Amino acid sequence: MNFTRYHKDMTLRKKESYEVESPAFTFDILAAFYYIRNKELKVGKSVYLTTHDERKVYDLEIKVYKEEVVDCKAGKFRCFKLEPLLKGEGIFKQKGRLEVWLTNDNYKLPVQMKSKVIVGSITSELERVEGIDGPIPSQLDK
C-alpha cells in the first residue's frame, strides 16, 4: 500500500510500504509513552523498552531522575521527572533532550514536557484535567 505524503517544499511523493522485523513488545514512540504510564516508577530506577521508528528498532531507556513540584495552568502537582535516552543511532540521538513530568500517582498524568530545538526550546504544559472523578492524589492546590 502506498501513502501520499508531502516533502518540505509541499510537493507530493509516494511513500513505499515496508516491513520491519522486531521483537515482541516493541512500541512506537507514542505507544511507549502510554506504556510507561502503566509502569511503577521509582526515582533512580530506569525503565527499559524497545521502540521503532520507520525501518529501525531501538532500545530505549527512560530515566526517572527525581520528584519535583510542577506549577502549571491546571494546578500544582507532585511529579516524576523523566527523560527518554535512546541507545545507538536513533533519530533523536543528541538532537536535544526531552524532559517529561508525570504526576506521581496512579494516573501519571503528563503535566509538562520540555525539549530543546535548533531555534530554542519548546515547553508544553497541562491546562486542565477532564474525565477524572474525584481528586487527583498528587495535586497540591485542590
Explain what the structure shows.
With 142 residues, this protein is mainly beta. It has one domain. It contains 1 helix and 9 strands. The chain has one helix spanning 29-36; strands spanning 3-6, 12-15, 26-28, 47-53, 56-72, 75-87, 98-103, 110-117, 120-125. The strands form 2 sheets. Strands 3-4-5-6-7-8-9 form a 7-stranded mixed β-sheet. A two-stranded antiparallel sheet has the order 1-2. A hairpin with a 5-residue loop joins strand 1 and strand 2 (12-15). The protein starts with a strand and ends in a 17-residue tail after the last strand. Residues 88-94 have low confidence and may be disordered.
Label this structure with key terms.
two-stranded antiparallel ribbon; seven-stranded mixed β-sheet; 6% helix; 142 residues; mainly beta
Brief rundown of the structure:
This protein is mainly beta.
SSE layout and pairing:
Layout: E1 3-6, E2 12-15, E3 26-28, H1 29-36, E4 47-53, E5 56-72, E6 75-87, E7 98-103, E8 110-117, E9 120-125
Parallel strand pairs: 3-4
Antiparallel strand pairs: 1-2, 4-5, 5-6, 6-7, 7-8, 8-9
Number of strands: 9
The total tally of domains equals 1
- Determine Rg (CA atoms, Å): 18 Å
Uncertain segments:
88-94
Mean pLDDT: 84
* Straight-line N-to-C gap: 51 Å
Element pattern in H and E: EEEHEEEEEE
Helix fraction bin:
under 10%
Strand order of the largest sheet: 3-4-5-6-7-8-9
Biggest beta sheet summary = 7 strands, mixed
Helix/strand-derived class?
mainly beta
- What general form does the structure show? globular
Oligomer classification: single chain
Approximately what portion of the residues adopt beta-strand conformation? over 45%
Please tally the helical runs, counting DSSP H or I stretches of 4 or more residues: 1
